[in-house]
Design brief:
By secondary structure, the chain is an alpha+beta fold. It is built from nine helices and 31 strands. Strands 22, 24, 25, 26, 27, 29 and 30 form a seven-stranded mixed β-sheet that branches. The chain starts with 17 loop residues before the first helix and ends with a helix. The relative contact order is 0.08.
């Protein structure tokens, strides 16, 4: 649903033009102007839009498996030619679907369209096959997709729990969940590293069933490692892989960048979690697999499965002997530079040298290099600045150190370059980098400062200053606040009032902690309070999918948002979220019957859209209706 607002305003001080304006800007004229502005925005957006033509193809399929191939454009083609599906049987298709989404943000209107052609194929033979390039003509220009390789594998038997797909009309027995249908693996990009070398560890899930939720997550322990988690706002990207002769949907759910702090064989303990899997129940078939999947609708039940990774052992090697004197623990690949703020100053004036270490490695653990300044320079506290980016490729960025100092004696000083040494794990050797030498000319002190008077250094507190060749620090000025020797604080009125105040503060803190503990123990109330916030977060993710025209991901995220909201609001376990149970519990809580039926209809539409994309279900309507519906439930429940 779209809303357009146009504000037309002007002061009516001019009486001669006032009646004319009122007659000109009547409601009908306002509507015409509004439609013209919208049409102009759409036309400009469509004119400057670049054509994209993509193919969505699974990279791994099983012999006999039925799967979908989808070709999508963002502009309507005048002609479309499908590739030659050699090595595959066409079960259905092409099915043409059209969708559009209009987003108004910051005064700009963006119209996003999608035109898709979907084929349902069956892999008929084992081996490496290729889905060829499709072509489409848009505005007289031909666009071609890339050919996509597809690996067709024959799965090994799973002990009878899962049958192998056979002839048309037969269906794999998915009513049971085999032991290896859902796996959790901890994978490291290296098993042998140097001390301080970056190590990427990924927690990867392998599943052959739908995942409805995750519970009771226990983080792995990284004893002996400095850990940095790689966080991402994007949802898990699922891909198909073959593992132990079976095809899985795989996704990386957690990533950690580790830096070992000691040598030897270090063990990363296991990660535990419980997943709620959706298992399809046995049902009577019509003999038409495609019809059963798309219109019969699968009957699902939720099954809890506890997963655990295998502990991972990493061999950490000690750094080689013979480290340079300038080495301070840096491991990685770095660049090193330095600069002198001033080339000429007066005696007893301050300046600074700044060095910067940039590159990839254990940057947060690197200490400041030794600047090696002359004895007549008085060095003060080193300041540092840093900025890092953590990705799967490692930690990269920079770390800089500023050395402020005072030159006491005049003259010309040649300051040698500052060395920085690090260990390069790729080449297995130490490297030393040195800045250019610095020349500083110190002129005579012309400030008229009395002999022995200490200068003031910018950015340094008075308590940090020292007078040259003396051990007297800065003398405190102001009121001394001296007290008679025979007066004691213990036993005074101030002492009594302080004790009373501390006791009152302790009692208030104890009362608050007990109340907080009771709230945390009430898991039902806690889930109910967080239900709306979690649902809004999932709706935001669904909105991003909608704007990107990713229908499958959009409907999947909408189902998670709606069912997750109802489960949290009513304290219903994920395994018991059936439509009948949802209807009964919501009506019992006082929800309007119309709202309950609308919720169940939206859930059914989302489930239907996953099997028949583009069949009359509009993403924008689904999203807006769900947003309004959750708002009404919040007011009632």
């Amino acid at each position: 649903m779209l809303y357009f607002s146009i504000f037309v305003g002007k002061k009516q001080n001019d009486r001669r033009n006032g009646p004319v304006r009122n007659k000109l800007f009547n409601p009908m004229m306002t509507r015409i102007v509004s439609l013209f502005v919208v049409f102009l925005s759409w036309a400009c957006s469509a004119f400057g839009q670049e054509v994209t033509f993509t193919a969505d193809v699974p990279r791994v399929v099983v012999v006999g498996e039925v799967f979908r191939v989808e070709f999508t454009l963002n502009k309507q083609p005048s002609d479309f030619k499908a590739p030659d599906f050699a090595g595959f049987d066409i079960v259905a298709g092409p099915t043409m679907a059209q969708g559009q989404n209009i987003v108004i943000s910051g005064g700009q209107t963006v119209r996003q369209e999608s035109f898709s052609y979907t084929y349902v194929l069956r892999a008929s033979g084992e081996g490496n096959q290729t889905i060829g390039a499709a072509s489409a003509v848009v505005d007289g220009k031909t666009y071609i997709t890339k050919a996509v390789p597809v690996e067709v594998v024959r799965e090994r038997s799973s002990g009878g729990n899962r049958g192998e797909a056979g002839a048309e009309g037969e269906r794999e027995d998915a009513s049971t969940l085999a032991k290896d249908d859902i796996l959790l693996r901890m994978i490291a990009n290296k098993t042998s590293v140097y001390k301080g070398e970056a190590l990427l560890v990924q927690i990867k899930m392998y599943t052959r069933a739908g995942i409805a939720g995750v519970e009771n997550v226990k983080e792995p322990a990284f004893n002996g490692f400095w850990k940095q988690e790689i966080r991402s706002d994007q949802p898990v990207q699922w891909e198909r892989e073959t593992f132990n002769g079976k095809v899985y949907e795989t996704g990386i759910i957690r990533q950690f960048l580790l830096f070992p702090q000691k040598s030897g064989v270090l063990e990363i303990e296991q990660m535990d979690m419980t997943v709620v899997a959706q298992v399809q129940l046995r049902q009577t078939l019509t003999g038409n697999m495609l019809f059963d999947n798309m219109f019969g609708g699968p009957q699902l039940r939720n099954v809890r499965r506890k997963l655990q990774t295998v502990p991972l052992k990493i061999n950490v090697r000690e750094l080689p002997a013979g480290a340079p004197a300038a080495f301070n623990g840096a491991v990685g690949e770095f660049a090193f530079s330095g600069s002198l703020r001033d080339s000429q100053i007066n005696a007893n004036s301050s300046t600074s040298i700044t060095v910067q270490i940039s590159g990839r490695g254990n940057l947060p653990l690197i200490d400041a290099p030794n600047p090696g300044l002359p004895d007549s320079f008085e060095l003060y506290t080193t300041k540092n600045d840093e900025k890092f980016t953590v990705t799967a490729d490692g930690m990269q960025g920079y770390k800089s150190f500023e050395y402020p100092f005072i030159a006491r004696a005049e003259g010309v000083y040649d300051i040698p370059g500052i060395p920085f040494a690090y260990f390069d794990p790729k080449e297995g050797r130490y490297k030393t980098l040195t800045t250019d030498a610095f020349r500083l000319e110190v002129l005579r002190d012309v400030s008229g400062r009395a002999a022995g008077e200490a200068p003031v250094v910018a950015g340094v507190t008075k308590e940090e200053l020292k007078i040259l060749n003396d051990d007297i620090r800065f003398i405190r000025v102001g009121e001394p606040n001296l007290k008679p020797r025979n007066r004691f604080f213990v036993g005074s009125w101030g002492y009594v009032l302080t004790l009373v105040g501390l006791c009152a503060l302790f009692a208030a803190l104890l009362f608050y902690m007990q109340k907080r503990i009771r709230e945390l123990r009430d898991t039902v109330k806690l889930r109910n309070r967080k239900a709306n916030r979690k649902a809004r977060q999932r709706l935001k993710a669904a909105y991003r999918y909608m704007t990107a025209a990713k229908e499958g991901a959009f409907y999947e995220e909408m189902l998670r948002a709606l069912l997750g909201y109802v489960g949290d609001k009513l304290n219903i376990p994920v395994a018991d979220l059936s439509k009948d149970n949802i209807r009964e519990q919501l009506l019992r809580k006082g929800a309007a019957e119309g709202d309950v039926e609308e919720l169940l209809q939206i859930v059914s539409d989302c489930e239907f859209a996953q099997y028949a994309p583009g069949k009359g279900v509009q993403m924008n309507n689904i999203y807006q209706s769900s947003l309004d519906l959750i708002g009404r439930f919040e007011a009632k429940l």
